[in-house]
Amino acid sequence: MSLKHVILTLIHQAPSTGYEINKSFEQKIGYFWHASHQQVYQELAKLKKTEMLTCEHKPQTDKPDKKIYSITVKGRDELRKWLHQSLPEKKYKDILLVRLLSADLLPLDKLCEQIQKAAEFEQHRLDEFLHIQKQCYSDEQKKYLSALDKRLFINMRKGILLAEAELAWAKEALETLQN
Amino acid sequence: MSLKHVILTLIHQAPSTGYEINKSFEQKIGYFWHASHQQVYQELAKLKKTEMLTCEHKPQTDKPDKKIYSITVKGRDELRKWLHQSLPEKKYKDILLVRLLSADLLPLDKLCEQIQKAAEFEQHRLDEFLHIQKQCYSDEQKKYLSALDKRLFINMRKGILLAEAELAWAKEALETLQN
DNA sequence: CCTAGCATGTAAGCCGTTACATGATTGG
DNA sequence: CCAATCATGTAACGGCTTACATGCTAGG
């Protein structure tokens, strides 16, 4: 229900192509919203058909042609409406926690391996965030953030706090399981 | 892809009815895996058709009839196979963080309200977990946990750690936004 | 009397994944 | 020469949501 609005948000910030939007999902946006490139192109087509976006075809000679999407008044209205709606309830899905329940079919060492691997993934994530924090948000820089940069900073902080919590949990879990 | 396995896990622990499984999703399982009752009934039908489950019809006089599902050898094999597969990558979806990006269309006070409300929701979740922790896992009780209870304890701890991280983030976010 | 609990589903439609598809240019 | 980057999609299928549907009993 919301990929639509994520895309509208991105194009509201600046007109862009499907390719650029996909780049965002692979990089920074991907940290808090996942989407595949196929899904993005399908959604763009839908948003064009419902007149939330307009599309300008731009031929290129050395590279494949581009389609540059811009948001319409109708699209901006839709986005504004959505932003003011209250948040739907979160739908938790954590496979590792499900696996923990299947006690006797998954041996302890295999389970610990999986937790370990998940922890490594989170550590990697955390390192990336910490790197960004160091690069872009020194104490000095933090004093002069624009409204948008401030909000980006807050997003990154959530990435850090959640990754840290995941890591703390993994450590604790392994200790409890192996004692 | 995994509701199937969540249900198999539950029925592997003990034969049950669709109604009971739905109760689990509304209560403890719901903390880390969401599913609607329609989805559960549909999945049960599918699992029966593919011979992962058998079904015993049990008429009742004072209440509606029941269908008691049990796991088959094939079902257990499928579950075991799934448990040994490596975890798929997590797909993050956090609407609040998307809304933070749409700077100029959502006024600061509205945004803060939404963060506040999300924080209250997390606080409620945390309180529930802390209540369970107090009831079921005193220091004394923790010494004598069965293998399964230990794993349940670990699950609850994740609920606590993540809820705390969400709360810490919300507090920090509100401060940053309002300074 | 009305609500909550017990107990089960079907149908339509949208959302998301997986597989398939093309083809030029640039840099190592 | 090979891989990566640029740039776009279609088709089939499966997962999940939303709306609709039924009907009895016990308790306040």
Structure notes:
2 copies of one chain form a homodimer. Chain A is mainly α. Chain A folds into 2 domains: 3-84, Arc Repressor Mutant, subunit A, CATH 1.10.10; 95-178. In chain A, 65% of the residues lie in helices and 8% in strands. Chain A contains 8 helices and 3 strands, in the order αβααββααααα. Chain A has helices at residues 3-13, 18-26, 37-49, 73-84, 95-101, 108-136, 139-142, 147-178, and strands at 16-17, 53-58, 66-71. A 3-stranded antiparallel β-sheet of chain A has the order 1-3-2. In chain A, β2 and β3 (66-71) form a beta hairpin. The longest helix of chain A has 32 residues, at 147-178. Chain A starts with a helix and ends with a helix. The structure holds a DNA duplex (28 and 28 nucleotides).
What are its keywords?
Arc Repressor Mutant, subunit A, homodimer, 179 residues, DNA-binding, three-stranded antiparallel β-sheet, 3 strands, mainly alpha, 8 helices
Question: Largest sheet of chain A at a glance?
Answer: 3 strands, antiparallel
C-alpha geometry of chain A:
globular
Q: Largest interface by residue count?
A: A-B, 64 and 64 residues
Gyration radius of chain A (Cα, Å) is: 21 Å
Q: List the helices and strands of chain A in order.
A: HEHHEEHHHHH
Number of domains of chain A: 2
Measured between the Cα atoms of the first and last residue of chain A, the distance is: 44 Å
User: How many H/I helices of chain A?
Assistant: 8
Taken as a percent bin, the fraction of beta residues of chain A is 5-15%
Strand order of the largest sheet of chain A: 1-3-2
What structural class do the secondary elements of chain A suggest?
mainly alpha
* Number of strand elements of chain A: 3
Helix content of chain A: 55-70%
**Assembly state of the chains shown:** homodimer
Mean pLDDT of chain A: 94
**Poorly predicted spans of chain A:** none
